[in-house]
């Protein structure tokens, strides 16, 4: 159970502690923040409401710890990461239980998230020793006018303190996807988990604590965004921000100083379906891509753009599959579970009502109980409807009928987002042409969008983000290049 066994020390009465300087602590604010269970809509957990003063202390210890960590051999950093990965997997049950309770993730998916996270940490350790163990050697005489009098050595050095802000939908996996690259590269971490998801994240952090990382290297502060959000992101002690979430990221990037940013801010992933597509394959991917975790994934299929000639057939196939989705509690491992909050459910409902007023065809009856929204496919959606452009982040999927490939590409590219997209066709040449024309960070051919496997590059363009993630890209992003130039008194040519 959460907060029990090896995790007992992270709980004080009914409030989970925050983690700083290698210790679990109570905030001197004496205040806590409630985490509402999306299913019961009652308080499930409480976490500390850290103060700005506590953030300052955390930044100081993260800075000192980083200096020592940067002098820790790479193999040793990797060894500790492997240890943390094993501990994380060993304790998957209580962490998954927290995911079920605080973000209503279906039980099996919650376990998968923890296991995937352990694998990510191990892969990162392995990749880190390879890519950080080598640099470049350049000689000066390749540039006009130079003799071979200079040897240039380049290596990758850490940035310092990384501020990691993961979203509610993957509070463990998208936290470790920032923590592990940061640590292997010699940085320290200040983690600000989402409130909904904070308890899962605190358990994950304890696994790193149990692995024996040095004091102050990993820190996790909880609290209200209104009190410590801007304070953290604008803190002079932060040397890099890695953020995944909504358009708060745009505000953060405007306020952050001259530091590297890694941002992933959602998407409106289009699924373009051509006349020759295998419609059973498409329907299966629309279900998986549009409705897994109730559509609360940035990479979810968020609009289907299907050629009119096959639209009826596709709609029938998708309807048949939607009818088979189980709807209910995450504990029962239902396919569709309550969305994360009441405000999120209200927002989704607003999009549905707008589509209704403007004449969309409801393939199922709209049904909602509390935060639980039944899966809904909206046919005949038109560009004047909000749902054609906005991200519901819920189990509601719009379908737009198109009459040409150009129309599909145009809709995809008119979005302010550009995360991923997919195209279904048996004609690989067309798939490549369409994929190249789609203004998105990734295009999937004949499969739904997805971030994983976690070592693949993952990036969005336009409002979908800054920079690229994936294990190798994140390690590189969390380092700087340092060069040392050896100046020779006279030219020297090997074998010359
Ligand atoms: O929600 C944003 C995530 O990066 C999506 O990850 O494709 O593994 O669900 P996923």
TrEMBL record:
Keywords: Cytoplasm, NADP, Oxidoreductase
Subcellular location field: Cytoplasm
EC id: 1.2.1.9
UniProt GO MF annotations: glyceraldehyde-3-phosphate dehydrogenase (NADP+) (non-phosphorylating) activity; lactaldehyde dehydrogenase (NAD+) activity
Organism annotation: Arachis hypogaea
Domain spans labelled Aldehyde dehydrogenase: 24-483
InterPro entries assigned to the protein according to its UniProt record, in alphabetical order: Ald_DH/histidinol_DH (IPR016161), Ald_DH_C (IPR016163), Ald_DH_CS_CYS (IPR016160), Ald_DH_CS_GLU (IPR029510), Ald_DH_N (IPR016162), Aldehyde_DH_dom (IPR015590), ALDH-related_metabolic_enz (IPR051020)
Catalytically driven reaction(s): D-glyceraldehyde 3-phosphate + NADP(+) + H2O = (2R)-3-phosphoglycerate + NADPH + 2 H(+)
Upper lineage: Eukaryota, Viridiplantae, Streptophyta, Embryophyta, Tracheophyta
Signal peptide location: none
Protein name: NADP-dependent glyceraldehyde-3-phosphate dehydrogenase
Main location: cytoplasm
Catalytic-site annotation from UniProt: 264
Family statement: Belongs to the aldehyde dehydrogenase family.
GO cellular component, one term: cytoplasm
Alphabetized Pfam families for the sequence: Aldedh
């Amino acid at each position: 159970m959460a907060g029990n066994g090896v995790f007992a020390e992270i709980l004080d009465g009914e409030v989970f502690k925050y983690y700083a300087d290698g210790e679990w602590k109570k905030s001197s604010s004496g205040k806590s923040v409630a985490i509402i269970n999306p299913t019961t809509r009652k308080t499930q957990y409480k976490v500390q409401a850290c103060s700005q003063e506590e953030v300052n202390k955390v930044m100081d210890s993260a800075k000192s710890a980083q200096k020592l960590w940067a002098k820790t051999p790479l193999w040793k950093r990797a060894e500790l990461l492997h240890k943390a990965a094993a501990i994380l997997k060993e304790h998957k049950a209580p962490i998954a239980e927290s995911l079920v309770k605080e973000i209503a993730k279906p039980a099996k998916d919650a376990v998968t998230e923890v296991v995937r996270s352990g694998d990510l940490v191990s892969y990162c350790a392995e990749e880190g020793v390879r890519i950080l163990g080598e640099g470049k050697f350049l000689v000066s005489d390749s540039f006009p006018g130079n003799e071979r009098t200079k040897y240039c050595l380049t290596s990758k050095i850490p940035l310092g303190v990384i501020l990691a802000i993961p979203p509610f939908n993957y509070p463990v996996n998208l936290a470790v996807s920032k923590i592990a690259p940061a640590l292997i590269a010699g940085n320290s971490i200040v983690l600000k988990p989402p409130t909904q998801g904070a308890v899962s994240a605190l358990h994950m952090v304890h696994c790193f604590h149990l692995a024996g990382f040095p004091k102050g290297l990993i820190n996790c502060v909880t609290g209200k965004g209104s009190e410590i959000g801007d304070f953290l992101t604008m803190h002079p002690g932060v040397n890099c921000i890695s953020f995944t979430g909504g358009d708060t990221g745009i505000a953060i990037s405007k306020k952050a100083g001259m530091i590297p940013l890694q941002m992933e801010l959602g998407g409106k992933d289009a699924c373009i379906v051509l006349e020759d597509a295998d419609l059973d394959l498409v329907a299966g991917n629309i279900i998986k891509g549009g409705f897994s975790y109730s559509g609360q994934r940035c990479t979810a299929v968020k609009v289907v753009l299907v050629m009119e000639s096959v639209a009826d057939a596709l709609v029938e196939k998708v309807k048949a599959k939607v009818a088979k989705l189980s709807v209910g509690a995450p504990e029962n491992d239902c396919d569709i579970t309550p969305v994360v909050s009441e405000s999120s459910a209200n927002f989704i409902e607003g999009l549905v009502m707008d589509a209704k007023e403007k004449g969309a065809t409801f393939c199922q009856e709209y049904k909602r109980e509390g935060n639980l929204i039944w899966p809904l496919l909206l046919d005949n959606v038109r560009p004047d409807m909000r749902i054609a452009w906005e991200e519901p982040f819920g189990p509601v999927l719009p379908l737009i009928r198109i009459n040409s490939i150009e129309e599909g590409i145009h809709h995809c590219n008119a979005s302010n987002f550009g995360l991923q997209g997919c195209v279904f066709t048996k004609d690989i040449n067309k798939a490549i042409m369409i994929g190249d024309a789609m203004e998105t960070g990734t295009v999937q051919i004949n499969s739904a969008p997805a971030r994983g496997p976690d070592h693949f590059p993952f990036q969005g363009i336009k409002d979908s983000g800054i920079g690229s993630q994936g294990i190798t890209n994140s390690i590189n992003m969390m380092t700087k290049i340092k060069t040392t130039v050896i100046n020779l008194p006279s030219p020297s040519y090997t074998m010359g």
